[in-house]
Amino acid sequence: MPLQNYQYDTIMREYNRRQAQNRRIQEEHQAEAYEKIPRLREIDEEVATLSARKVRALINRQESGIDDLRNDIALLSQERTALLLSSGYPADYLEMPCTCPICQDTGYVGSQKCSCFKKAEIELLYTQSNLKEILEKENFDHFSFDFYSDTITNDSTGLTERETARRAYNLAKDFVAGFDNTFENLFFYGDTGVGKTFLSHCIAHELLESAHCVLYFSAFDLFDFLAGSAFSRKNDTPDDELIFDCDLLIIDDLGTELTNSFVSSQLFLCINERIMRKKSTIISTNLKLEDFSATYSERTFSRIASNYRMTKLVGKDIRIQKIFLGGK
């Protein structure tokens, strides 16, 4: 998904700020060097005059004298460099500095985004996802099956806890692998602490690394935000639209918030709108399926059941297990 206009503007404002700062530095360097070495100003003025003559000659296709102009400019540049070095300055002291030498702090190389722009893109998306710090620890590289029993089985499926976790893990990996080509939604459910949120974070990490727009909200924070948006008269907030249009929306711990008619209607609106736009959503909840339907209405549950991959995780609370293992 391309950046939203306001996201693109955020990044470009940083490039503009950087360029303005670099121009100020260049002007300060010039003023200092011109005062100390007056001949530098004369050289720059002569180079500017000769360069203008060369451009006019090229435009008028006057081939004679072009080589002489080039040679004169080259000699002046050599003199300029020698004066700077002999006075203790680096050879590029009068050039405008830049953070990225590839794009000269423009963000683009030709018509293509520079690598520094792509890095800024990912950094912005991480920051706006609400997940920046936690994903350093919660990602596929740190997912462990050791917390799931390989002997205790689920009566309804016949699979062990570990086999169930591995199935959910593989589902999450496949979800990422096919994200750009297949529209899918995931619904993780099960008891507290069995890895639902962790798996959601694993997916978020991978998609953010590939510059997708991911937003994470706890259920409480999402409905609090939607309530503020619904009852506000301000229509210029881009985040509201982004909830419906981001590449991936993660709604965590659904069922822990105070549920009322507004929450139920907003959940249906959010789910339905994203399905209509073919924008993927991940929902995690501690609620049993029958309780979920009773809490949020059969209409909402029907929409989820027909458009989401329903995946149950089982096991003992991993957070408690870690406490007994000394926080490892």
UniProtKB/TrEMBL annotation:
Residue ranges of domain AAA+ ATPase in the record: 182-311
Keyword ATP-binding among record annotations: yes
A GO term for molecular function: ATP binding
Protein origin, superkingdom: Bacteria
A UniProt-annotated Pfam family: IstB_IS21
Alphabetic keyword roster: ATP-binding, Coiled coil, Nucleotide-binding
Coiled-coil annotated spans: 17-79
PANTHER family (UniProt xref): ATP-BINDING PROTEIN RV3427C IN INSERTION SEQUENCE-RELATED (PTHR30050:SF4), CHROMOSOMAL REPLICATION INITIATOR PROTEIN DNAA (PTHR30050)
Name this protein carries in UniProt: ATP-binding protein
